[in-house]
Amino acid sequence: MIKAILTAAVLVTAIGLACAAVLVIAAIFMSVKENEAEKKIRECLPGANCGACGYTGCDGYAKALAESKNGQVKTNLCIPGADAVSHKISEILGVEFEDTVEQVATVRCCGDCDNTEKKALYSGMETCAAAKLIFGGDTACAYGCLGRGDCAAVCPHGAICLDDGIARVDARKCIGCGLCAKACPQKIIYLMPDVERQVVACSNKQKGADAVKVCKNACIGCGLCAKNCPTGAITVADNLASINYELCTRCGKCGEVCKRGCIRTADYSGKHRQKSAG
């Protein structure tokens, strides 16, 4: 009996050692050599995995940069990392530094509790995504903020809060990762260069008379802003004004002439610009 047990133990041990040897040999001959440049780049990326760079997270961007030839992949695509990360990547790859265009999130809605009303009493999961499934949400404006904070829940720096029934972005904390824009089922959160000063804080595409019925601050597509813009940076399409920031000189004339108060003028400097200024 003891002999049989010892024999079995020896056989199991021998099989285990053989399998271990096979795994070690396989690991040696089948291992993929790690790209040192990719490893260094990954270490300097912020790890937000927001996809703002256009790749599948920080790992995807690091791999693309390490395998890039002749500067095909730009070193300044990491918006949350800003210029600091772009500098580090440039040093690792031995290429010329490229300035990062810092961005900030903006909520294109001014339909707070004073300007719009609820069209129904919603009872369910307190998320914007869930509320939207019930007849497009409970707000009178079908294009407005649903005010349940899906955007705030994904913000890594606490830059978004709910105030007077709508989401508001504290630009001083925003790193421009864009996670809030992806989380918003209404698609009313946009990223813009944080050097800009004017925002059309409305997303309503209804005709003027109908838009005013659901929100006191709604854009009515009157075109007054476009007519008074000295550079032609503002156009009106689908009853809604929009700003082409490549043409905008930040003169503020559009905000001055807007009778609805939906073109807001403010300092939207994001966290990175605030940090460098300080």
Task: Please give a structural write-up.
It is a single chain. This protein has helices at 2-30, 36-44, 57-67, 82-93, 128-132, 150-154, 179-183, 208-214, 224-228, 253-257, 271-277; strands spanning 103-107, 160-163, 166-169, 189-193, 198-200, 234-237, 240-243, 263-265. By secondary structure, the chain is an alpha+beta fold. The longest helix has 29 residues, at 2-30. Helix 2 crosses helix 3 (57-67) and helix 2 packs antiparallel against helix 4. The model has no long low-confidence stretch (mean pLDDT 91). The protein is 36% helix and 12% strand. The protein contains 11 helices and 8 strands.
- Total number of strands: 8
Tally of individual helices? 11
Quote the distance from N terminus to C terminus: 81 Å
Which blocks of ≥5 consecutive residues have pLDDT under 50?
none
Report the helical percentage.
25-40%
What gross morphology would you assign?
A: elongated
Q: How much strand content do the residues show?
A: 5-15%
Largest sheet: 2 strands, antiparallel
Provide the structure class.
Answer: alpha+beta
Please summarize what this structure is.
The protein is 36% helix and 12% strand. With 278 residues, it is of the alpha+beta class.
